[in-house]
Amino acid sequence: MLDIKFIRQNAQLVREALSARGDDFDLDQFLELDEKRRSSIKEIDDLRQKQNKANEEIKALLGNKKDISGKVSEMKKVSEEISGLKIQFKEIEEKFEGELLNIPNISHSSTPQGNASCNKIVKTWGKPKEFSFKPLSHVEIAERLGIIDFKAAAKICGSNFALFKSDGAKLERALVNFMLDLHTKEHSYKEVLPPFLVNRTSMVTTGQLPRLEEDMYRLKEEDYFLIPTAEVPITNIHRDDTFNEKELPICYVSNTACFRREAGSYGKETKGLSRVHQFNKVELVKFVAQEDSYQELEKLVANACRVIELLEIPYRLVLLASGDLSFAAAKCYDIEIYAPGADKTPPSKVSGGSTCARKGIPMDKWLEVSSCSNFEDFQARRGNIRYREKETGKMRFVHTLNGSGVALARLVISILENYQQDDGSVIIPQVLRRYMDGRERITK
Predict the structure, then answer these.
(1) Residues 198 and 237: beta-carbon distance below 8 Å
(2) Helix H segments across 157-211?
(3) 8 Å CB contact between 115 and 310
(4) What is the pTM assigned to this prediction?
(5) In the beta sheet, which residues pair with residue 242?
(6) Is 393 left (phi over 0), alpha (psi -120 to 50) or beta?
(7) Which CATH number is 4-100 given?
(8) Region for 272 from its dihedrals, namely left if φ exceeds 0, alpha if ψ lies in -120 to 50, beta otherwise
(9) Which of 196, 25, 225, 325 is nearest to 16 (CA)?
(10) Which of 176, 246, 289, 318 has its CA 20 to 30 A from that of 151?
(11) Burial profile 71-101: b = 16 or more Cβ within 10 angstroms, e = fewer
């Protein structure tokens, strides 16, 4: 969340940031509420001072064996007045805290201003493959090979789920092991395996709540949430923790299932793995010193891109505009991979990124598999995660970063479609073969 002192002192800047995001939060109404809250605090404090003064006067009267009934009556009225004001203040404070949590982060100065059409492609890698035959979609490939069963998944649960079978399940496992090995051995991340359920406080810390509660799967009885991304439990590992600067950066990698209700908003006709309610994802999370965070963001992006490059899949790196940022992000890059057989699908926006249409660029061939974000101190303020500066000893909030390293559902789409052969088989990328018994291809 934003610092309330910063908001008061930079109200116009915050207004402009809200406008750049296309956010309709009423800042003027919030500032009025803040003023009302501050007035209530002052009024209660003034009455408490009056109460303390009366207490001293009563003590003096008692010491001089004088009548205290008048002062006691006065004290009683002040106490009643304070009690009434405290009830009013509690209502104001709860509303104030709720509204403060609904103010999005301010985008970094290097973030393009505008909606999704202002996103910028800052890098392209690889060339789309030319086929001697019409490439099939991943759904057709998977069904012909018998490696993903969408009908069985729908029978087990419902639409927008997938059942991986045989070499499909093995491909998923191979990708997870490949990415975890890469990030732990080559990129020096520490592997963790967190719970897939988190409490409400954890979701508030990372910014999913209160705004995005309708997009989340919730267990009402316990008030737990299925995680939309490993970012949530991993960031909350260090909620209320304090580090010495020399301990930073702290870098974690994790493979978890991710659960998102939003897939259903595009209708049951959405086919395949493009938008599913449950998918696996290897997540990268960093806790860094403030002055290092944008350098660390570039490293994070490079780590995620390395996955795609080793798999030899064409991709493009997109710098998101302010109106396409997630609620908590100050700056974000999306990695979009090429999928030659992908069906045209409605534009989507998910936590941390987007596959909204770029100007003049068709979206039927590119799939977002990673969003790499710098949240600056936005999440750390909500989670009270601090560090002590090495030189000054001053306490500061850490900057948190996260990115997919990468998401598997759409990665599987791209592998099946890019590596498909005219005989119906799929070549296994070289870096995955040691995880798939040394085999070179998936066949029926």
Answers:
(1) no
(2) 167-181, 200-206
(3) no
(4) 0.90
(5) 386
(6) left
(7) 1.10.287.40
(8) left
(9) 25
(10) 176
(11) beebbeebeeebeeeeeebeebeeebeebbe
Supply 352's token pair. 């941390």
pLDDT exceeds cutoff 70 at 396:
yes
Q: Across the strands, what pairs with 256?
A: 281
The domain 116-442: what is its CATH number? 3.30.930.10
Query: Long-range contact list for 411-414, CB < 8 A, 24+ apart?
Result: 411/175, 411/311, 411/337, 411/369, 412/138, 412/168, 412/171, 412/172, 412/175, 412/273, 413/138, 413/272, 413/273, 413/274, 413/339, 413/342, 413/367, 414/313, 414/337, 414/338, 414/339, 414/367, 414/369
d(CA 158, CA 410): 19
Domain boundaries of the chain, sorted by first residue: 4-100, 116-442
Taking phi over 0 as left and psi of -120 to 50 as alpha, with beta for the rest, 102 belongs to: alpha
**pLDDT digit string, tens, across residues 339-367:** 998 654 444 333 333 333 333 334 458 99
The tokens 């061939």 sit on which residue? 365
Cβ-based neighbours of 396, under 8 Å, separated by 6 or more:
289, 290, 377, 386, 387, 388, 389
- Tell me what percent of the chain is helix, strand and coil, each rounded to the nearest 5: 45, 20, 35
DSSP-H helix ranges across 65-127: 69-100
* Residue 102 identity: N
Q: Tell me, what amino acid is at 358? A: R
- 300: three-class secondary structure by DSSP: helix
386-388 and 242-244 strand pairing: parallel
Specify whether the CB–CB gap between 302 and 314 falls below 8 A. Answer: no
Q: What is the pLDDT of residue 342?
A: 63
Is the pLDDT confidence value at 128 over 90? yes
Return the ∠ at Cα 131 (arms to 126 and 133), rounded to 5°: 160
In 3-state terms, what secondary structure has residue 369?
Answer: strand
Tell me which residue of 172, 153, 171 sits closest to 163, measured CA to CA. Answer: 153
